[in-house]
Structures are given as structure tokens and as C-alpha cells.
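ugh ok fine here u go
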Amino acid sequence: QVLLVESGGGLVQAGGSLRLSCAASGRTSSSYAMGWFRQAPGKEREFVASISWSGGNTYYEDSVKGRFTISRDNAKNTVYLQMSSLKPEDTAVYYCAADGSRWYRASQADFRSWGQGTQVTVSS
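structure:
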């Protein structure tokens, strides 16, 4: 079992930046894809970004392209999501996902381990 703990969420004004971190422990492996998803109030959880096991390949949801950057440090078993130019519509609980079978066009079903989520609130 992989334990994922997210951090870095908070309240930020529109146009601001935040960096989310997700530390993995337990039966960790760098051989799997990792990703970030989010769930806004009253909406279903949606894909945000994913990264291959090596970190050399990334994939983003269209609305965050050019504003968010996903990266990983396998030596620290940690994945990051750098979020810039934040908008009120980015407000959501952000979830880290691991043990992914793929990174390209990934979906929730492709990941086996999930964190508890961290709240990101962007004020206008």
C-alpha cells in the first residue's frame, strides 16, 4: 500500500501561484506514472496533469496548459504541481494519484493509489 500525503494548498488571489507537493511512502516505486486530479464543489473529479515514471513526459488538461507544471523527484518519492496565473475556476480539492499504468491521456481508472486531497481556493 502506498501512502500519499499532499501539502501546499491554501487561499490565493487570482493571478497568484501555489506549489502542491505529494510525498509517497510505503510500497513506493518510481516505475509508475503519477498525476494530479481535482474536484470542485458540486462537480466530478477531473484530470489535471500526469507525468511518466522518468519525469520526461507530461500531459495536461487543456485549461491548465501553460499555467501548471507537473514534476517529480524520484529520489524523494515526491511529485509536485506548480500552479501559476491561478483563476477562481481553479478552486477545488486537489488529489495526488500514484501507481499509474499510463501518463498519456490518463484517467482516474489508471491510478491505484490516492491521497486525501488538499484544498486550493482562488479568490477573485
